[in-house]
Automatic annotation (TrEMBL):
Keyword Cell membrane attached: yes
EC number(s) from the headed UniProt entry: 3.6.1.27
Bilayer-spanning residue ranges: 25-46, 58-79, 91-108
Protein family per UniProt: Belongs to the UppP family.
Compartments where located: Cell membrane
GO cellular component: plasma membrane
Matching PANTHER family: UNDECAPRENYL-DIPHOSPHATASE (PTHR30622)
Protein name: Undecaprenyl-diphosphatase
């Protein structure tokens, strides 16, 4: 909704502020991302077909998708442990750090 605001962070934080259990807030947040991910994939595939930029060998795409899926799953497991373990402040530090670095890069370029 607002550029630079974490969709998962916003939905989980709002859920917790509304008194929703941590596990439910986590699950809702990431179930909510499924339509956005599928939509983005559809748009990218449509663009690739229209511009005829599909690779002649699909193996790099399959490998990239597999690596992204594995890393994404590992990230979700870690993030779930952070949320359920009352260590959500770790995510806040991460967001502040990435946000600060992004601002510095944006200003410098």
């Amino acid at each position: 909704i607002i550029p630079g605001i974490s969709r998962s962070g916003a939905t989980i934080s709002t859920g917790l502020l509304r008194g929703i259990k941590k596990e439910l807030a986590f699950r809702y947040s990431f179930l909510l991302s499924i339509p956005a991910i599928i939509g983005a994939l559809g748009l990218q595939l449509r663009k690739a077909f229209l511009e005829q930029t599909l690779p002649s060998h699909p193996l790099p795409w399959i490998g990239g998708a597999l690596v992204a899926a594995i890393i994404g799953y590992i990230s979700l497991v870690i993030f779930r442990k952070i949320i359920l373990g009352k260590k959500l402040h770790i995510f806040a530090y991460y967001c502040w750090t990435i946000g600060t670095i992004s601002l510095i890069i944006r200003i410098a370029t």
